[in-house]
Design the sequence.
């Protein structure tokens, strides 16, 4: 599902480098989409994910929070 796909990506791309990645909250969500607020290193960032019916992430947007 989407949650598992996001976790796998985070382990592979962010956490695997030994850095801190902490979910703060879900800002928006709908079918096949979620926008989250995340602590990464010393920053607060917004990660948006879109996934297909198989739970595979098809698109991501990684933005610094305001």
Sequence:
């Amino acid at each position: 599902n989407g949650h598992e796909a996001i976790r796998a990506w985070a382990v592979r791309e962010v956490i695997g480098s030994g850095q801190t990645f902490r979910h703060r909250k879900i800002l928006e969500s709908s079918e096949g989409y979620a926008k989250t607020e995340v602590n990464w290193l010393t920053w607060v960032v917004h990660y948006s994910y879109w996934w297909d019916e198989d739970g595979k992430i098809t698109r991501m947007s990684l933005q610094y929070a305001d």
Summary: The domain at 2-64 is CATH 3.10.450 (Nuclear Transport Factor 2; Chain: A,).
